[in-house]
Design brief:
Four copies of one chain form a homotetramer.
Chain A: H1 2-29, H2 32-46, H3 51-66, H4 70-81, H5 87-98, H6 103-116, H7 120-127, H8 134-149, H9 153-169, E1 176-179, H10 186-195, H11 204-210, E2 215-221, E3 231-238, H12 245-249, E4 263-271, H13 282-296, E5 302-305, H14 312-321, H15 330-340, H16 349-358, H17 366-385, E6 388-389, E7 392-393, H18 396-404, E8 407-412, H19 419-425, E9 429-433, H20 439-449, H21 456-463
Parallel strand pairs in A: 4-5
Antiparallel strand pairs in A: 1-2, 2-3, 3-4, 6-7, 8-9
Helix pairs in contact in A: 1-2, 2-3, 2-4, 4-9, 5-6, 7-9, 8-9, 15-16, 15-17, 17-21
Chain lengths: 466, 466, 466, 466
Amino acid sequence: MSDIAVSTGLLDRALRRITTAWREMAAGVGGDDGESVGAQMLACLNARGGEVSARNRAAKLAQTYLGLDEAGRREFLRTMAGFECDAAAVAAAFETLQSAPDAAARAQAQARLRRTLEPPRARLLTQFTTIPDGMKFLVDLRTTLLALGKADPLLAGLEADLRHLLANWFDVGFLELQRIDWSSPATLLERLAGYEAVHEIRSWRDLKNRLDSDRRCYAFFHPRMPHEPLIFVEVALVKGLAGGVQSLLDQKAPAFDTRQSDTAIFYSISNCQKGLAGISFGNFLIKRVVSLLADEFRNLKTFATLSPMPGFRRWLDAKLAEEDANLLSEEESESLRAVAKTDGEATSGAEALAALLRRRGWLRDAATLRAVEPVLLRLGARYLLAESNGRRALDPVAHFHLSNGARVERLNMLGDISDKGFKASATLMVNYLYDPAKIEEYHESYAGEGKRHASTAVRRLARGWA
Amino acid sequence: MSDIAVSTGLLDRALRRITTAWREMAAGVGGDDGESVGAQMLACLNARGGEVSARNRAAKLAQTYLGLDEAGRREFLRTMAGFECDAAAVAAAFETLQSAPDAAARAQAQARLRRTLEPPRARLLTQFTTIPDGMKFLVDLRTTLLALGKADPLLAGLEADLRHLLANWFDVGFLELQRIDWSSPATLLERLAGYEAVHEIRSWRDLKNRLDSDRRCYAFFHPRMPHEPLIFVEVALVKGLAGGVQSLLDQKAPAFDTRQSDTAIFYSISNCQKGLAGISFGNFLIKRVVSLLADEFRNLKTFATLSPMPGFRRWLDAKLAEEDANLLSEEESESLRAVAKTDGEATSGAEALAALLRRRGWLRDAATLRAVEPVLLRLGARYLLAESNGRRALDPVAHFHLSNGARVERLNMLGDISDKGFKASATLMVNYLYDPAKIEEYHESYAGEGKRHASTAVRRLARGWA
Amino acid sequence: MSDIAVSTGLLDRALRRITTAWREMAAGVGGDDGESVGAQMLACLNARGGEVSARNRAAKLAQTYLGLDEAGRREFLRTMAGFECDAAAVAAAFETLQSAPDAAARAQAQARLRRTLEPPRARLLTQFTTIPDGMKFLVDLRTTLLALGKADPLLAGLEADLRHLLANWFDVGFLELQRIDWSSPATLLERLAGYEAVHEIRSWRDLKNRLDSDRRCYAFFHPRMPHEPLIFVEVALVKGLAGGVQSLLDQKAPAFDTRQSDTAIFYSISNCQKGLAGISFGNFLIKRVVSLLADEFRNLKTFATLSPMPGFRRWLDAKLAEEDANLLSEEESESLRAVAKTDGEATSGAEALAALLRRRGWLRDAATLRAVEPVLLRLGARYLLAESNGRRALDPVAHFHLSNGARVERLNMLGDISDKGFKASATLMVNYLYDPAKIEEYHESYAGEGKRHASTAVRRLARGWA
Amino acid sequence: MSDIAVSTGLLDRALRRITTAWREMAAGVGGDDGESVGAQMLACLNARGGEVSARNRAAKLAQTYLGLDEAGRREFLRTMAGFECDAAAVAAAFETLQSAPDAAARAQAQARLRRTLEPPRARLLTQFTTIPDGMKFLVDLRTTLLALGKADPLLAGLEADLRHLLANWFDVGFLELQRIDWSSPATLLERLAGYEAVHEIRSWRDLKNRLDSDRRCYAFFHPRMPHEPLIFVEVALVKGLAGGVQSLLDQKAPAFDTRQSDTAIFYSISNCQKGLAGISFGNFLIKRVVSLLADEFRNLKTFATLSPMPGFRRWLDAKLAEEDANLLSEEESESLRAVAKTDGEATSGAEALAALLRRRGWLRDAATLRAVEPVLLRLGARYLLAESNGRRALDPVAHFHLSNGARVERLNMLGDISDKGFKASATLMVNYLYDPAKIEEYHESYAGEGKRHASTAVRRLARGWA
């Protein structure tokens, strides 16, 4: 118990200094509200043990925050962010650590230094966990901080503290995997539909189709946010690799007889809580679901995604604009020019392709498609396997799946013919294959050496025409 | 994401240094087992992202530990404790912090310093949370570390890290209050009986009596240890303050008609997990239960404990031994000598009292009781209100309840006439009163100024004969 | 056990006779299928104890039925209906009863007669209860039998047996009341929307509005049909009697603050299972819900319905057609002719009213409404309180609520301005008031003497102009 | 609805007659209480629709009953039993049936006759189902009626009606199978221990042993009596047929590794509700549990019981007393006389055996055991396979299992060496084997031709020495 006393003593002194600092700061921003918010926070921190009333104080503070407008919230958060570490105490603790005579003293000094580095604002944040829906409150608070922190270093510090706490609380060991189906509560399904970020859920009928007998949907939940999914995945049980998302989303298609299924297609993974950005569980979700499905359906042999290539057009458009001579082979250029029919306007294959990508009609023209498809598939493979952002794959979805230990299995022209699909990736979609026997190895070599695994066909495509 | 990369880089370097250090250490302790355990731990730390196999590695490590004998476990834990912070990295990070040019840099440097202070062994510990029953494994690990750490500074450091983690995970905001009754699972009830630390549960019949219609029992649970109570309280609904525990534990007594009850007596509070020592929830438990009972039974007016005085006899025996002249009044001494009938042996009242306390028979002798009772009550009150351990009440139970905001309400002679009660407190028991309207105030003044609140009667008793 | 033996003996003989009869019958209808179905049924009945295989046989029989087309099902049911009582055995048992020498013999003979009156087809039906979803199968079977039995006395007998069994199994003592809200499973909500028979549920949004915080929805379920509601009621918590259903169904209206509510309006009660026709639980449902609501919302003072008058226009149109001279007062006729503006076409008030009821526009014309409203309210009151079908109220909804002990409280012009409301009741709706203190008395006097209770205002209206 | 009216009319008339009859009867028994009970019942029956107050009346009636002493209850039940069928109405309905002109009229007349045969007292009984715990009330009521009915034909009739109702409500289709283990509520486990009728459960430790990891316990429950088991079975998972119950009940024996188990031994089946006597579910329970275990443990090859032979000694003692010359072979007689050492007292083998069976000591004497064992095994086999009660096996447990389709597999000397086992069956126990592939065939041939199946060894034993 004696180190608690020490810690309380330290804290008292720290608070005394901070209080002075904060008073000046509060005087700076002036205003009654500012003062009362700061005073509330100080009361939260000063209270030395009345935990029940601490909870009431935290609840009141949360209500104060929720009652504020945008500017008020910003000021509130800045006030909270002002409860930083006591630099002098940190320095003193470091001094003690440096002069520690033996292991025991060193351990104690390290613990003390660690405590001085826990800013009072982190303790303030922690107190919100005790109020009902407090965890959701903190997650949403981080959403706000992420937006505000870009321009405000003080708030960025508070955001970092909150992230540290959330990463601890949302450790995957605490999460619960739940299956979601058409028997789930309507409240949950409604929320899910709102969170779907990959392929918009347009109606209850659309949703019902995604929860049919040939589908599976799983989500992670946290015990302190029991009605809020954190991330969810939608899976279709099919025969053979599915290449196009429209047929999966077709509400009129009958449910597939799952006894015939040999392949599980993960066609949508959505994070639900912006406030948990950077705290990753998608990786776990896929692997846990692969293992559940393998148990339930003994016939499943292939586990793969059907994924978008969100950055493909952005990259391609830039390449086309800079007229990179190595982008297209002569043969390709010629056939593109032939189908683009831009009457002399397009003097290069790149210009012809750019022109085609500005209009959608050619998708329905077999001859054009014949010319465009091989070019786009080749460039798509190159984009996925060769283009980089530092050591990572340029495409963020590719980076996610490669990090998880998947490999690029197949590219699909006309994989997503919606407006969104056309604009983002010229209808290309990609299957990433999760081979349970290889996941670890692939993960390690991508994380270590940046090696991107792919099927022979895709590797050949990426090598291209040269 | 870039700070993760930084952190990974730091970690890599730290691990390289530590690996070398550990190899030497392992060479020191020699032995194949030692090496393989260290190698397993290193593998757990090195793995840069294969979380699923990380879980498998953690599970294997836990099994290795559980398969060891006492000496093996000690060595295992010392090996783990060896994964300390990298002192050089800490120093470098502090340097960076000192020279940080602005708030943003300072925040980042603080975060980095904090990370360097998180020893790899803490990350090792965290990985056990992902395995089934991992949380219970960690709690039990701390039980072992608490025992071993007293003599071993290295293990004391590991214990401190584990405590820090557990305090975070077992924050009261994460706990679930459950009522326990005779409909609860037998597994749980059996466990409860084993954990009862105040008044031993002797049989299923004894247990059933404590869960009768005039009783309530509540426990805190953690979502990651769903079948393990953390702490529980037993309450009797009675009329008027209960002064003796034997009547509460009488299995043959009929259940009291709770519509007549005006008082809730908390007659037993037991912590169940030694590994959570120092992480306190008793305070919350009492207050939450007071609030639940007040809701359920509108007639309840008094919330009080019936508590032991575990240190009374130890203190009194010492006082008697040192022949403190101020301990007893002359009158008291005389009457004690009269009933002790030690035939001139006892030349002082203290000796007479000491002689009586060595034998139990006088409890059943009305005349002796008449002489002894006022003396013991007075000394008991003095012991509770005036004797100190630093700024705290000397009696640990008194300290606990005074810290929670209770006051000393009444002392009860013959409150516990069991062997245990006779030996620990000469049968004295005490009621602490929880007055919802005063809890905060009493808590604050005890925590702040060390003020111990008590009823007028007890205060008068404590003032004594002088 | 000996009477089982007797009964088995009887049954054997009965089956022997029936088998012969059935063979002839089956020969009559010919066909392989007919024979195999009959043989299956016989096997179900003959099996003297292999209950597990009995279950399998019943499951197979159910599957056979479900695989048949309409004509096949009819034949199946006729075959089953052929397993009637053994008339000779009935006669013999009656003989024995008549000559029973004493009470004991009489009791035994009665029991035996009762058993001979249990037709084998009833035992066949009972066997379906053992298969999964067997209860729903039987309920749906009765739906079919109700349709077919009108024209086929043999099937009518089978239907009566099934009704008898269902009435027994669906005794209100076995039903479970459940609240349904927006957290209920989507499967259940979807089913509910399909079963709503009073005010169609048009969309999920419409449904959500009916499950908002100012609404309550309760349904009865049977433990053997856990996912199928039997009957449900929708309630709105409002201030004052609600007179119009459109405002209750307005999806854009904000939820009412239920702390202000003094009235619970039951605005929709729907039976879900046609196969349970004539087995009534609506009565219980309303009373149980009244009691639940009274517990939950202490401010509620009034419990009333907002109900349709489904037979009003049918009755009124007939009256108008027969030019009943006593239908309208002279004054009423005059004002109706004035607003009908049919230019001499309508020579009577009745003709004018009939003309108005053929077009909807006048609802939006204040002057017309002023003329029509008092007439329709008066006639509506007369229709509810004076028109009869035997001893019952002519209007079936009125009969239902009056039977339950409600009284007619208020009529509302423009209560339902939907097409359906205009066509069925010229927009009239009615509030039936459930006064817990009067329910029993009102119920008794309606059930006994046919007395219809109503508020003073409605009674005055019904007395009319004479 | 019209036939309800008819039925109500009939009922009214019936009640009028009965009322008169009952008044006379009540006058006979006199007493205020008698009158008021009868009046209460009449009120229950007369109430024409106020179902909610009907429930209240039923609850009051039940309370009245529970408040009575034994004599009062008997009078209460006689009063209730007095609400018999109306003989004149029965006769009239039969008349109508006889003269029914066609199928439709016949069906209607049959239904009517059936209704007249439903005595008002059955409707009274049914009303108790609506009150909380009403089903348990009725089950317990039948326990009482079974005891009283033996001497009182009027009560026997009421008992028969109640049995008929209960048989309907407790149809196996409505029952729920639940596994019971050490995690089950203590309330349930305590009840279970009280209901165990085969091998007494002596303590919580004994109970825990029976719920260990190598055991299974399953019970049937009814949705209207959710906390009351109806029947339960205890199973041990072992290797090879278990022959002795003491080793199964040994609390100190470690749990068997179920991966090694090839045999499931059903060692105890207990009916819990005396009031459900004659309504059998044991049969279903065994078969459902066999199927569950076969699913859970793929290694199980044998499903058998370890059962007592409760009537063996009774039969054997009678045989020995009557000095049946064919009971023992000369050789057997000689060896029995040799070990009985009764010094000439026992002049026959039967006398020697009788003398041995009067003392227990010989169980521990190897030589005696050697002489006695073959004789007892042979006689045991004969008792099971050849001795009859009508067409049934004389032993009631044998009859139960043979009816269910089991065969006699093995007899075990020293199978139950408790006092109870020694007295009932001279320590013999028997394994009945349930071979899923044969159950139906064996069941049919026992039920049909009385054929008792047994293993070759047991059949050979039973054939004996002749």
